[in-house]
Amino acid sequence: MPLASGTKLGPYEIQSPLGAGGMGEVYRAHDTRLGRDVAVKVLTESFAHDPERLRRFEQEARSVAALNHPNIVALYDIGSQDGRPYLVSELLEGQSLRQVLEGGALSARKAGDYAVQVASGLAAAHEKGIIHRDLKPENIFITKEGRAKVLDFGLAKLTQPTSAQTNAEVLTVTNSPTQAGVVMGTAGYMSPEQVRGEAIDHRTDIFAFGSVLYEMISGQRAFHRDTSPETMTAILKEEPPEWGTDSKIVSPALERIVRRCLEKQPEQRFQSARDLAFALATLSGSDASAAVRITPAPRSSRRWILAAAAVPLLLVGGLVGMLVHRPSPARRMQFALPVPGEVSQMALSSDGQMLAFVSPDDNTGVPALFVQRVGDPAATELADTEGASYPFWSPDNAYIGFFAKSKLMKIPASGGSPQAIAGAHEGRGGAWGAKNIIVYTPEAQGGMWHVNADGTGAAPLNPSLYGKREQSHRWPVFLPDGDHFLFWVGNFVNDPDDRIGGVYESSLDAREKKLIVLTHSNVGVAQGHIFYLDLKLRLVSSRFDVSKGAVSGEPQVVADSVEYSPSIIMAAFSVGANGSLVYSTGTGTSLSQLTWLDRSGKELGHVGEPGTVSNPILSPDNQRVAVDIADLKANNVDIWLEAAEGNSSTRFTFGSSEEVNGVWSRDGKTIAYRSVGELAQLRAKAASGLERERTVLSIDISQDILANSWTLDDQQILCTAWLANSPSGRATGLFLVPARGGQLKPFIETRGSDRTGQISPDGKWVAYASTESGDWEIYVTTFPGGVGKWQVSRGGGTEPRWRGDGKELYYIGQSGMLMAATVSTDGGFSSGTPLPLFPLRGRPHVSSTDQYTYDVAKDGQRFLVNRFVKADHPTPLTIVLDATARGK
What we know:
mainly beta, Phosphorylase Kinase, domain 1, Neuraminidase, six-stranded antiparallel sheet, seven-stranded antiparallel sheet, 10% helix, Transferase(Phosphotransferase), domain 1
């Protein structure tokens, strides 16, 4: 019997009826305790006769009440009055989707908007282990504000099976999501497994969602027949009718999403509502030109014929020609993922649900670590991760490993405080295996180490892994057993005839390494495939037999264009163990422009154009600047000479190899620089360009050297060099090299890495950066003797520079802040308390050859900064679902 106005259900006073259905009546009511209007659903009296059903009802209701999502109707309370249980939920103003559809099909825009919201609500419930089981237009409410909300989550589970209702729209449901043999749901929206009375999971809701989405777009029900048995037969054996009218305009990408939701086999559908919501959200942002006209075929053919079209942001192979809708192997689907800034370093969690990536902070330009759920539009910056690089996930996806502040770090993916695990001055990748052991590369040149995830047991891997002419072992990736792993081995010369550089396999005992494939690329592993770049810099996948450690068959091209950094041998992609892939086609964080700033950080002007530039070094007269400029198309870097004022620009080096770090002699007539080819060389060349370059020093390609500063008489060059032929990670050191050629001579020896030595203007002191304390700090020592030591920085410092009179020393402090310290050398050395000048917002260092972010004019009043340029429209990443499936 309907309840009269004024009836009390506990603290709720009935005001008026709102509707009725098979499970009971719904009323508008007033909560006398909280003074708000609510909706009360009073369930049928049959519930009162079965205590076990009441217990299940309360248990399920509590689970649903735990959901808190804007696209799910909030459940406030449960109770019972006179033997009849009731539910109390938020009161909505609007109408059901069924009522909306009475006006006919929705526009593609509106249908897409509602679909994204419903899928997001489903995803939130599924992640709590709650399945709807009876999704249909009657259970979706559209508020006056246009928000879609899902009703009655989990209630379909509660109804007891009774006699068959073969001619009714609503059928009986079981009391268990895993109990087979009983039909569950509403006939027109059931999945095939529901029709057969089989066990169900969250993918049943995805099928029902596809039926609802089809109805929103076409205006007709996907499987509706005259009787329920006929409807269920259609669900099992037939495909939905072709779209309703000749004039209907539907995106082929949207049709593909509907088709995938309505696959007969659950494993062929979207495997999560989160992926489905992401696909729809991405599609809703694509250009309207992606839509094409659908040409209906005769109903008896049961085919969906798609016109060929280019679909922005959804580059799915096979969306051309005629596609017969029948169960088939999974095919890859690609979507764009918007990100807050340019991204080149990324890591996909093993389940493909979460993405960790590094992107520059908008204000400081300092890279930080972000996490973003695949499918969500917003990313979250993890606190205290300034300077982060090369993230990787723990096996349970609870933690993210990364490198920052000369350390290997870890941080909870949900946020928290980072924890230092081990020292790593120039980390080049890590992998966290199933045995809770991390394999990582601590230095830009050298071998790998292993450490327990709690920070104990840090030690280098077996030295026998490291061979001659191998500059680096980096970018490790564990295989499923947590013992074996893949990694890149080689040198930095991208030689097509190179028979060393490639992906190798080894294990934690590190007794040997085995070549898997020749490549100058990092590697990804998923579902019996490996991913890497071929010689044409295309991302390809090859079948990989984990048990044999061998590839087979021809590599398949996954993407024709992926961002690649030759200086670090890394392509911007990551693969999850579930087969999802993410990659970038952009330029990462490389765009920057040389910018003049005063001591307050005010911009005074620019030098040259924005580009991939690094290492700005002013000439002694401050008239010109030597700078490295990368040609991404030629996969090469050369030194250019730019006018410090004006627009004059001259290319200085012309080799096919990487030539970087041009340092001016004191008289401004010569530039020393590093060149790499068959050998790593320190070269010198007249700044006028009128003389041929000469070789100052040649060392094996497995080592490296960079010029830092000339002595006062221009007879020697102070250099940073990697010389220790040790697989345990090569510490950098400071060495002197005769400018006319000769042998290296160590300048100082410390317990850490030392670099970027700067000889003072009077030639009596050297400022340098060192990790001897565990973190990078700035020190000063005497020259030429290297006697005595004074620490200048406080709390971290890199890149020292002298003022022209030697009375002030500058360096980069925490969070990219440019610091200044006064200096006195009367009767010894002393420095004042460092004071902050301004945040540099410099281009993040990518390669080990990126030594300098800025230089300073002689008077100390102007600074030339290689300032990060934020893209107006950051390049979105591309997500590929089922990347190991056949077809592009």
